[in-house]
Write a structure and sequence with these properties.
about 140 residues; Cathepsin D, subunit A, domain 1; six-stranded mixed beta barrel; two-stranded antiparallel sheet; 3 helices
Length: about 140
């Protein structure tokens, strides 16, 4: 199977909250379109330093991240950040990878948006069983 990428739009969630309260105009909300590698082996959204700076995301924490090669490195956690894909959205924290590493979309935001990988088309799609509204199991 080839690598799967998704076109996403990321927003500074704090800016969106200020817009909802009337303190910012919609053109003042920091956002950026990105192409992210869909990685079902990763848990979180991972962005690079440039994206974090462009969105103005504050550091919230630090966590250890286990890289694909087995190395463990301490990464900043920033947020909150809104992710939008098709008719789906979620709000998450993001790990900040050093340098210009490509963004990764992990399983937590994938599950929260109720999106799936279509193996035939090798694309990320809205869950065809729930195309109009995401479902969340509560059991």
């Amino acid at each position: 199977m080839d690598l799967i990428y998704a076109d996403l739009e990321l927003f500074n969630s704090d800016d969106l909250a200020l817009q909802r309260r009337g303190y910012l105009q919609s053109d003042q909300v920091r956002h950026i379109p990105i192409k992210a590698l869909v990685d079902s082996g990763a848990y979180m959204l991972a962005i690079n330093e440039d994206i974090a700076i462009q969105l103005g995301l504050p550091k919230l924490d630090e966590q250890l991240a286990e890289m694909a090669d087995g190395r463990r490195i301490k990464l900043d956690i920033v947020g909150p950040v809104d992710i939008r894909f098709a008719n789906r959205a979620t709000t998450v924290r993001a790990m900040v990878s050093p340098g210009d590493i490509e963004p990764l979309l992990g399983v937590i935001p994938l599950e929260d948006m109720d999106v799936v990988i279509d193996p035939r088309q090798q694309t990320l799609v809205v869950n065809p069983q729930t195309p109009y509204i995401p479902k969340k199991p509560l059991k």
